[in-house]
Amino acid sequence: MESLIKGLAEAALGFVAGDREDHADHQSATEREERSRSTWAEVVSTGKHGDQQKQQGNSSYGHPSDYQRSKNDEEAGQGGSLEHNPNSWGSRKKNENQGHESEEKTDGDWEVVGQGSHNKKRNPSVPHKIPKENWQNFKMPSSEQEYTPETHYSADTRPTRSELSDLSEACNKLWELDLNRLVPGKDYEIDCGEGKKVYQKGDMASGNLFKWLDNDVFRRPTYARFCSLLDNYNPQGGAKEVVTSEERHEQAAFIQEISRTPPIKYLHNYLVDKGIASDSYEEFKEMLTHLWFDLYSRGGGYGSSSAFEHVFVGEIKGHGENAVSGFHNWIQFYLEEAKGNVDYQGYIFPRGYGEHPDSETQLLTIQFEWNGVLKSVSSTLVGVSPELEVALYTLCSFVGGEDNRVRLGPYSVNIKCYHLGRGKIGSAFPIAEC
Fold it and tell me: Mind telling me which PROSITE patterns this protein's record contains (predicted)?
């Protein structure tokens, strides 16, 4: 009886703390979370399955190569649904990869990315190559890895009295401190296509959202380490995550790397001044690790989700009709679109009489399909660094409320924050305020 009550309580918590943007106006309250496997490894994969090994290069900072870790034992533990159900996402992906091995080729220290079956669009100008040198080192103990020197960044990371009393000013300061933010037209270019209402059917974008992105972006240390985390999750609903020691090393190394950047240093100083975080920077980094990577239950699946997975990687949930939940990161979007797993279907018309997005816009509200599953409305910051998003969502989760109307450079934004249980981020994402 106690186990039954506990299970029902976990299921209720998972629903309440789900990504409410996903179900507020478009989904039934009875939907369960379902997840399919993260496809970052497949973006850089040669299409082979099994115990493929990540390649090691010579530089200090690396990037994901043609490695995909098999979780057959884990999937078997879930009743074999991925292997034996021909209609399951896992089975479809296995067949798709086998059918497209010929499209994926390696080219020295680069991986040539093929196109998946879900998205038939092609932008001839998109450079479907991703640098992959030496990200194997990220799997070593974090104390044995090399990081960007502290002197690489020079910025004032002490919050002012005004910023301590005004969350909007603090968030805007984080925007100013994002020295790794990309520049539209210089580092990448997007094509927003045509706009649509949320309820309108049909694809309003003739091509991909991303026309091109400079490959050197993925050589930036925080970007590379962020990407190394994206294949650590199984977004299939209810599947218990299995975290290996190497994955924990990747998590620790990512936190170590971003902790050298101004946004995270500012976050620490802010939380210390507010009496929320310890003066010890090591304890603060441990707090970030637990906050973003500790597993929790979502939709009744014990140990099946985390803040990082939900916000940045994305999950697929469904009960009768599947839906994408979370998935608010532009890097994950770019990689999945390059593979062909994301089909961009146009931007959502701004509320009121706000300006329509263009190639310079860095806050988008869009509609897309991920592996054939629709996300009718989603919002994301484009071109911002991983450290900016971690700092922004952490700050608002600790200091703000469910709605946090703030300023980020030229944008008026509502940072939505939902908690799952005590001290856990259930979801966090931006909404454009017109």
Answer: ENDOU
